[in-house]
Design brief:
Layout lengths: L2 H21 L33 E2 L1 H11 L1 H4 L27 H4 L3 H11 L10 H13 L10 E2 L23
Antiparallel strand pairs: 1-2
Helix pairs in contact: 2-6, 5-6
Length: 178
């Protein structure tokens, strides 16, 4: 038999073997998360309107202390960046020659910060902060650029009422759906 024919026969055998393995029974791993599962708290989606924000509260003063302990190592002691991106400052810089996209200068919705911190921070322990700690950190970050007052409590009612500096700086992809 020629080399070409051997190659074709082997290729056909391998092809049918792979198909038969793919169609064979296999065990599906994992299970669907439901409202009773321990992962249900991960399924929280916080909307810009504040819908689904959990109960809790915090102030900028509380957030400053927590930021120094949990966040300053990466974001710098003043939240203007270190090994991680800056969070504050540069409000109004987007139309300048050197725009800087920080949370306070670029983000459209204040609820996004709560959701992001909850899901991803600190980088080595996501989902480890309490709701009160997250509200306090948000209050601190917003307070650094005078978006939120330092003596006011941030909670599920006050957070969605904050108007971010760049709130109107976005264009809807589908304007008819606004």
């Amino acid at each position: 038999m020629s080399t070409l024919i051997k190659t074709i026969v082997i290729s056909i055998c391998v092809f049918y073997t792979l198909i038969s393995l793919a169609e064979s029974d296999y065990q599906k791993l994992g299970k669907k998360a439901d409202h009773l599962s321990q992962q249900a708290h991960w399924n929280l989606t916080i909307l810009p309107s504040g819908e689904h924000l959990p109960k809790g509260s915090g102030t900028a003063a509380q957030g400053a202390k927590l930021f120094a302990l949990k966040c300053a190592g990466c974001h710098g002691s003043e939240a203007i960046g270190a090994s991680a991106e800056p969070l504050v400052g540069e409000v109004g810089s987007l139309s300048s020659d050197y725009p800087e996209k920080t949370v306070n200068s670029y983000w459209r919705n204040p609820t996004t910060l709560f959701d992001y911190i909850r899901r991803a921070m600190p980088i080595n322990a996501p989902f480890s902060l309490t709701h009160d700690q997250i509200y306090a950190l948000c209050a601190y970050i917003f307070n650094k650029d005078d978006i939120f007052l330092d003596n006011v409590e941030l909670n599920q009612d006050t957070l969605p009422k904050i108007t971010m500096p760049n709130h109107s700086g976005f264009v809807a992809i589908y304007p008819s759906q606004n």
